Amino acid sequence: MLAERGAVVLCGGYSGVMAAVAAGAKGAGGTVVGVLSRDDREGANPDLTVVIPTGMGEARNSVLVDSGDAVIVVGGSWGTLSEVALAMRKGRVPVVQLGGWRVSDGRGQAVEGVFYAADPAEALELTGLWR
After folding, report:
1. Distances from the Cα of 1 to the Cα of 23, 28, 49, 99, angstroms
2. Nearest Cα to 44, choosing from 13, 8, 11, 79?
3. C-alpha angle 82-86-91 in degrees, rounded to nearest 5
4. Which InterPro entries match (predicted)?
5. What's the CA gap between 111 and 84, in Å, rounded?
6. Which pLDDT score, from 0 to 100, does residue 131 have?
7. Which of 3, 47, 76, 96 could form a disulfide with 22 if both were Cys (CB 3.0 to 4.6 A apart)?
8. Which residues pair with 115 in a beta bridge?
């Protein structure tokens, strides 16, 4: 859906959700940039258009968060949670969460600026970029 709207899609560039994102965007004729944690291309998803080996480990999540016009995180691994935290600390709101983590403050209240989407179409709507 992102590629269909002309967006360049950034992801971590490996397997799992990252592979699904890359395959979907490539299948729609889009450009997919993989920002890798390793300092080489080993394990990079074959559906990536551009591969950027950083050698930064999980710190590459900061590059991902800083490089996009919108932050949509999918699923719930620890790396995904770090992307939510980085985006919030850097003021990159709204942050759209599709599945996975539910971020709350110390009192169990939702954190302002994190929006939860029920499906990909709602995630795109919540970014405010395609209205």
Report:
1. 12, 8, 17, 17
2. 13
3. 150
4. LDcluster4, LOG_family_nucleotidases
5. 11
6. 64
7. 47
8. 96
